[in-house]
């Protein structure tokens, strides 16, 4: 059911500094920062030949990544994102298998303009998983 690895997300305490490190030190193509208020995050994407790195920083009150950053002050890997061909079919199958879909269970439009969902990290070996419609 799961397909390509779309991105690995890293929460960072300073988005500008992290962008500069990926661009200047690691020599990667790094996007501009984009605010996504409906997700409570600001994102930067690092383009790699085979996948992407999503750099994340909390945005606004009640950001879902605020607690993670408070517990990992220098940053850390936050989630991985797999592509699926049919996000509603994937959601329904995973719910039937007993996995918890976060939020209200309805996909939101994610950073790439496509529907996304999140699965509880305790149900997938301590890893927060995002599914994105391919
Ligand atoms: C930009 C849009 C989109 C995209 O298109 O790419 C994004 O990526 S948005 C990214 C941000 N959005 C989200 O993360 C939404 C889903 N997340 C959540 O609903 C919450 O963050 C959470 C996963 C339910 C965690 O909630 P929180 O309040 O921070 O913590 P809890 O205390 O409830 O955590 C319970 C339990 O899980 C452990 N945990 C928390 N976060 C992670 C994580 N990222 N990876 C692994 N484990 C995690 C936490 O430590 C707790 O464990 P115990 O202490 O053992 O109970
Ligand atoms: Co993501």
UniProtKB/TrEMBL annotation:
Catalytic activity: (R)-methylmalonyl-CoA = (S)-methylmalonyl-CoA
Domain of life, per lineage: Bacteria
Keyword match Mitochondrion: no
EC number, UniProt record: 5.1.99.1
UniProt-listed Pfam families: Glyoxalase_4
GO biological process, one term: L-methylmalonyl-CoA metabolic process
Keywords: Cobalt, Isomerase, Metal-binding
InterPro entries: Glyas_Bleomycin-R_OHBP_Dase (IPR029068), MeMalonyl-CoA_epimerase (IPR017515), MMCE/EMCE_epimerase (IPR051785), VOC_core (IPR037523)
Similarity annotation: Belongs to the methylmalonyl-CoA epimerase family.
Protein name: methylmalonyl-CoA epimerase
Organism this protein belongs to: Aerophototrophica crusticola
């Amino acid at each position: 059911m799961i397909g390509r690895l779309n991105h690995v997300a890293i929460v960072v305490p300073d988005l500008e500094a992290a962008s500069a490190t990926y661009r200047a030190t690691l020599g990667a193509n790094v996007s501009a920062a984009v605010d996504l208020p409906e997700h409570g995050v600001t994102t930067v994407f690092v383009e790699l030949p085979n996948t992407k790195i999503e750099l994340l920083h909390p945005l606004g009150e009640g950001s879902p990544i605020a607690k993670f950053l408070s517990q990992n002050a220098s940053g850390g890997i936050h989630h991985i994102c797999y592509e699926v061909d049919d996000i509603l079919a994937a959601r329904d199958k995973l719910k039937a298998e007993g996995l918890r879909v976060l939020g209200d269970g309805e996909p939101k439009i994610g950073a790439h303009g496509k529907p996304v969902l999140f699965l509880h990290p305790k149900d997938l070996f301590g890893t927060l998983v995002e599914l994105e419609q391919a």
